[in-house]
Each structure stands twice: as C-alpha cells, then as structure tokens.
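Hi again,

Forgot to attach this to my earlier email, sorry! This is the prediction with pyridoxal-5'-phosphate bound. I've pasted everything inline since the attachment limit keeps bouncing my files.
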Amino acid sequence: MRIYLDNNATTPLHPEVLETLGAALRDVYGNASSIHNEGQAARRLIEEARESVARLIGAAARDLVFTSGGTESNNAALYGVLAASERPHIVTTSIEHPSVAEALRGRDVTSVAPSRSGRVDAAAVVAAIRPETKLVAMMLANNETGVLQPVAEVAWVCRERGIHLHCDAVQAAGRIDFDVESLGADTVALSAHKLHAPKGIGALWVRRGLSLAPHLVGGAQERRRRAGTENVPLAAAFGVAANRARDQGVREQIRTLRDDFESRLPGTHVVNGADVPRVPNTSNVTFPNADGEGIVIALDLAGVAVSTGSACSSGRVEPSSVLLAMGLTPSEAKSTIRFSLSRFTTAAEIDVVVGLLETIVPRAVRS
Ligand SMILES: Cc1ncc(COP(=O)(O)O)c(C=O)c1O
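Structure tokens for the complex follow:
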C-alpha cells in the first residue's frame, strides 16, 4: 500500500468524480453547440458543472470560462490583459508559479519578495505600484508552503487605481473558503486536478464587464473567450469535485491530521510558514543539514510519496526558488520536504510516516 502525501502536485480522483467522468465519456458525446438532443444533453451537463465550480468561489456561473488547467488560466488572464497596453509595468511576487512567472518574463516587472515565513507584505506590493502599472499578479496560496497571501488587502488599492489584479487561486480553491467578491481580484485562475478531478481542465473567472483579449480564437464557445469544442466530461468531473471540495468537515479533518503530523516530527526541524495563515493540507519542513533528495528517495522506497520543492522544479537539482525567495540558504532549501495531505489521508498513514521519518531523517543528516 502506498501513502500519497504529494497532493499539491496533483491528487487522485475522487470515486464519485471517476464515476461521473466515465458515464459522461460513455453517454454524453454530443457537441454542446449542437441543437439536437445529444448536443443539449452535453450543454446541460457543462452548464451544471459551471454552476458547481462557480459556487465553490462564490461566483456567477456565466463569469467562468473553462480552460485546460491552471497554466492556461494564468496565461489567458495575463496575456489577455497585457495585449491591451504597449509597455505596461507589472507588479508580482517572487513566489508565483512558473505559469505566471514565465508569462511575465522579459517584461517590466517589479517582483516583491516574501518574509521568511513565506508571506508577501501587502504594503510592499502596494509600494511597488507605479503610475504606469497596469497589472498586479499575486497568488492566493503558495504551492510549496501553502502560505496564504494578502490578495484582498492589495485588491482595493488596485481597484481604486484602475489596475488589473490577477490571482492564481489554484492551490487555494477547495482548501479554504473564499469568494471572488471579497477577494477583489479581476481574474482568478483555478485547476481541477488539485481537488480530486482529472488533469487537463481548469477555469478562469473574469469579472463581469471586463474586456479581456481572447487567447484562443475560432468558434464562439465560452462566450467567445475560449474557442474550441468544450470537453464536457472533464468539465462534469470538475463540477462534481468542486461540490465535494466544499465540505468544511473534510478540511478540518485534514488540518487536524496535518497539525498532529507537525507536532510529532522528529529531531531538529523548522515548519516553514507555521506562524502565518496557511491552507490546512500543507506542511513544508526543513530538516537542517539533511539531504532532502535522500529523504524523498528513502520515503519512496518505503512506500511514501512526498516532494522537495514544487513538482515542476523536482527532477532538476536547483533548490526551490520559492524557498530561496523566503531567505532560506541553498543548503536549507535542499534540506526541505513538502508533505501535502488530502481528504484520503488517514491517521494510520500519518503514524507510519512519522515512524519512518524517525529513522530516515537522522541517517540523512550530513555530519
Ligand atoms: C499555484 C499553481 N498555479 C498554477 C498551476 C498550474 O496548474 P495546471 O497544472 O492545471 O496547469 C499549479 C500546478 O502545479 C500551481 O500549483
């Protein structure tokens, strides 16, 4: 039996999601733009899914565009806004996901670093805004530390000054409660595979009345914001996952397990972001002088999946840029492990992982 604690990289499917997906792939093959029965069945399913995903973030369904995932949602929002201005100045944070950071590369960007806790100071973001700033891009929850960022505190300043605020909420949706109005962003990116739905589907919420250049042109699908025949089964799966993700009890159960795990961690260690608000499922831990890669491999051999840094940067030997931005040394960053829990994590699994760490961590410490 494997123990999977890498749910910030991706999650296994919820059984109900799998059932919905299978049934839709088999039965709902119509094109949602067709007027016949098969087409209308597909249309109903996708609109029902849109309602469900919108409800997760307190939004109106008609303001939600289905995309192929978080990367496309982030790219669509950023390129859509930037298409409208010549040489815009952009404010962002130095802990954004590559799907935001790379989309802004080569532009006139001011990047605001977080504190040692992993939280970016709202006042520092506001201070970086210039008269020619057109866009602020700021994530809601960081993928490596789970630390929540003060997006709402920045939002009202952006609103006052007519600056577009984009928020990557991929790691926050379904893990904490938020609604688009109190968040105050103009565009919000979501991804389904972080909440027990399949890879390859996401959504972009766009504030009503906002004109955003479409990133895919062709047919009139998705209110002309994203051309291409809709993937109805994936959207339906996302809808069911969004409904399940609203369960507060599950979030509390995950938080209890995570807090219990952290209270039982062996040896000298630092839980990064423990002193600031975080999503309930993430534990980012530095074991000083330990070989993080060695711990990941030893845990994997023992049946446990965890990660060092983000999935996108693992496979490369460089230390996590998020941890470096927080002020960890390269050696500390390489001694850091991300444990990310889900609704399927059990107390018995936490017992096993704590037990394994008690033997693995001391062996991984460099003398
Ligand atoms: C914070 C964040 N933004 C965006 C993405 C990209 O989402 P997707 O994998 O659906 O393209 C991820 C995925 O790792 C993420 O963690």
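The chain is about 40% helix and 15% strand. The mean pLDDT is 96.

That should be everything now.

G.
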